Amino acid sequence: MSExxxxxxxxxxxxxxxxxxxxxxxxxxGQIDQSISQNLAGFLQEHIVAAERDLADIExxxxxxxxxxQPTFVSDQIQFVLDKLVAQSVHIxxxxxxxxxxxxxxxxxxxxxxIMMALNQNLVKVETSKAFTPMERQVIGMVHHLIYQQPDxxxxxxxxxxxxxxxxxxxxxxxxxxxxLWAARNNVLPPQGDFAGLGQDGLLAGMQHYGYRxxxxxxxxxxxxxxxxAADILGIGRRSLIGIETDANNKIRTDLLAKKCDELAxxxxxxxxxxxxxxxxxxxxxxxxxxxxxxxxxxxxxFHVDSAWGGPTLFSDKYRSLLKGIERADSVTxxxxxxxxxxxxxxxxxxxxxxxxxxxxxxAEYIIRKGSKDLGSHTVEGxxxxxxxxxxxxxxxxxxxxxxxxxxxxxEKARSxxxxxxxxxxxxxxxxxxxxxxxxxxxxxxxxxxLIAAADATRIEANQRLNLLTKSIQKTQRGLGxxxxxxxxxxxxxxxxxxxxxxRAVLANPLTTTEILRDMLAEQREIANRPAMLAQLADVRxxxxxx
Length: 547
Ligand SMILES: Cc1ncc(COP(=O)(O)O)c(C=O)c1O
Hints:
The protein has 547 residues and is of the alpha/beta class. The protein has 3 domains: 78 residues; 264 residues, Type I PLP-dependent aspartate aminotransferase-like (Major domain) (Aspartate Aminotransferase, domain 2, 3-Layer(aba) Sandwich), CATH 3.40.640.10; 141 residues, Aspartate Aminotransferase, domain 1. Helix content is 44%, strand content 12%. The chain has a 7-stranded mixed β-sheet, with helices on both faces. A hairpin with a 7-residue loop joins β10 and β11. The longest helix is centred in the last third of the chain and has 36 residues. The termini are far apart. The structure holds pyridoxal-5'-phosphate (PLP).
């Protein structure tokens, strides 16, 4: 903001005004308010600048560490927000933005979000949330039912029970996974004799009391990094989160999982949880949940399923069977801000047994009292917004059949995109979509063939050079701002575990058409045919001995 601008004055009178008097319709804020309500997409298109500005340059707009002494006029701040923030934000709801798990939102979320903000309810306790607490308990119950399909009598008994919670509503998948593993950890070393439990006496006392040498969590090598954070926070350490190899389809190898469990038992290391994944973050695959449930049940180990991404596949009559065995999990994570199309941050963790979460119960006299229905007694977080209103509304307005359509068309679009890539002479489909995520790279057919025949060292070197090319194409495409796929690096069985950099497409936006995907491939092809990229390709061809 310019130095010469008129400054507002701090006075009680103006403070009363900003708390009580709505902005006039013709003020800057009033006008923005109106145009957002009438046409959010148009407003964003008008204000988000397509060309990429360097982040270091943007940082100069946010370089001042001083809190202003004098107030700023609302209109000035709004102008700053428009020019410096909105203009340089990411158009994640564009149908050609298919790179990440953050997608478009249904329009009704906007007014509902405003109601939520305006009411500013705090779900930590009934005294500050009233009807929002039973509503959140119902949402947790609905997600529980989606997974566990218990009879109505079960929900009548437990959903609103003051001493229990069927799950925990939180800010996202990370906290949902942490909550599940927190409960699992406390249950694996329960109170006994003079040991008052992990919550009271801590991990060291628990290990000494039970005589274990360590605790471990087992998950496939494709497990989300939030599990590493959980292992760290829960005091068992990231190295105790053990990654089990995956097979050619990116699914955990259950033979190795069972073997690892038994090896650890022999070393007197207690496995506190086995984690199955529904929708691996990079490749969208689903672990063999039924087999994992068997392994966990045989050894009396907590079975957690991280279905942050893929859980809503349960809405689909056609694809639900991919998740067979999820109903045997002790706990399940679902991120509402992913495929329930709710704004961030809304995540949920549910527990099959209403007693499981009791192992982390926490009370305080002034707030979450014993015997109250306060949800704060079973959550990691303290003060929490009423985001459940958005999940509740999504479930009501879209309904099971609506979500089914969204899920089915995402999976089928991913399949069509995969076919399109396979039919193209110059692209390689790296991982097949099982749900709605796939990976691929630019790889002309002659190089593809030569790679198969190449000696190990040559192949590894060629893949390294191709990785640089894939990165350059992805960065150039992002910079152009017309379309976007993300990129990741995979060590796949099919490629002798060479690190391969790939484009990653996530097809969850219902407005993405196959036409858009075709154009996106054409754009990537066009970028790959620019002189600098052609030189990189010539280099790879020379290495592989093809002219
Ligand atoms: C499988 C999986 N689990 C957990 C998470 C973490 O979710 P959040 O980013 O909402 O904390 C993600 C996020 O992408 C995920 O893909």
